[in-house]
Write a structure and sequence with these properties.
- This protein is an alpha/beta fold.
- The chain folds into two domains: about 5-125, Rossmann fold; about 130-290 and about 320-340, Dihydrodipicolinate Reductase, domain 2 (2-Layer Sandwich).
- About 35% of the residues lie in helices and about 25% in strands.
- The chain contains ten helices and 15 strands.
- The protein has helices at about 15-25, 40-50, 60-65, 80-90, 105-120, 135-145, 175-180, 180-200, 295-305, 315-335, and strands at about 5-10, 30-40, 55-60, 70-75, 95-100, 125, 150-160, 200-210, 220-225, 230-240, 245-250, 255-260, 265-270, 280-285, 340.
- The chain is globular and about 70 Å long.
């Protein structure tokens, strides 16, 4: 019987996303051994002692990387620290799973990609929505050309905000730590899905605004996307929403996909008429569109590390999504369309 290789794992930042996704994901996977974590907050160390007492804790990730022999590192810090922590882990010859967004500037993203290449290690960005059943089904149908020529995509991700109720602190709302608001939170997922499903984006017109919350960053944003293919798309993201539609809609010349995150994935055919002779033909494809995601991300990541899965959520994918988001901020600030090279 072949012995399973154990990857020694370190986690940088052990707040909400680490505790909800990364740590339990590694814990349940036979290929991983949770070794150490780093977080400057004493309260996080108390929480870790209760649930992950065998892991050694450090106040700074550089001490952890210097003293521990690690194979894999998850970076789960506030956005501001993604680049420096990921680069340090790559330089320590670790494979790195970095939370989204990849970084806060394109220059940082380029340095991360270069560090991964130099170290000959894998860098993956946590675009979890790609692992949900719903978006996976959308990708399958588009690749199979079931809709004919796709010409429009709509994505809406909105809720009441990450704090209170989810995040351990209000860092999401601090411009210095987060660099942006809803657009860099759920919006970066939406942008990535659009790129993954429809291909390169060449232009964006956007408006980011703080409508309800008294915070330093935007709590809502709208984006109008222009794709290289000629298709169009639009994204709505927000931190002030009551329950409503969440998910994506894709329209093609021969059919539509409604991926409603709360209800299911539907293939819609028939005829949409301006008169009274319209006919809608709904076919249920999946009743669990958000199955997957966090619960499967770490297993998928370790499949990438071992070569079982191809690395697609790589540094370039992270950079591409960030480039669109930064162009959207520029468009909002200038009230002009922003081109993307």
């Amino acid at each position: 019987m072949t012995e399973i290789k154990k990857y020694r794992v370190g986690v940088i930042g052990v707040g909400s996303i680490a505790q909800a996704c990364h740590l339990p994901g590694y814990l349940k996977d036979d290929r991983a051994q949770l070794v150490a974590f780093a977080d400057p907050e004493p309260e996080r160390h108390k929480e870790m002692a209760l649930s992950y007492g065998e892991m050694r804790g450090y106040a700074h990730y550089r001490d952890m990387l210097a003293r521990e022999k690690l194979d894999v590192v998850s970076v789960c810090t506030p956005n501001k620290y993604h680049a420096e922590a990921a680069i340090a882990a790559l330089e320590a010859k670790c494979h790195v799973l970095c939370e989204k967004p990849i970084s806060t500037t394109l220059q940082e993203a380029d340095l991360m990609i270069a560090a991964a290449r130099k170290a000959r290690r894998k860098l993956m960005v946590g675009f979890t929505h790609r692992l949900f059943n719903g978006p996976k089904k959308c990708k399958e149908l588009l690749d199979g050309k079931v809709l004919g020529k796709p010409f429009m995509i709509r994505v809406r991700f909105a809720h009441g905000g990450p704090f209170p109720g989810w995040a351990k602190s209000d860092w999401f709302y601090q411009k210095d730590l987060a660099a942006g608001g809803a657009m860099l939170d759920m919006g970066i997922h939406a942008i990535d899905l659009c790129l993954w499903l429809f291909g390169p984006i060449v232009g964006v017109s956007a408006k980011a605004a703080t409508l309800i919350k008294k915070i330093e960053v935007e709590d809502n944003a709208l984006l109008l996307l222009e794709f290289k293919s000629g298709a169009l798309g639009y994204i709505e993201v927000g931190w002030t929403s009551r329950p409503g539609f969440s998910g994506l809609e894709i329209y093609g010349a021969e059919g539509s996909i409604i991926c409603d995150y709360t209800r299911g994935v539907y293939l819609v055919g028939g005829k949409a008429s301006a008169g009274r002779d319209g006919k809608h033909e709904w076919k249920t494809l999946d009743k669990s569109p958000t199955e997957g995601g966090w619960s499967t991300e770490i297993a998928y990541w370790l499949d990438v590390v071992t070569g079982k899965e191809k690395l697609t959520m790589d540094g370039k994918a992270g950079r591409d999504a960030l480039e669109v988001a930064l162009a959207a901020y520029k468009s909002s600030q200038t009230a002009k369309r922003a081109a993307i090279e």
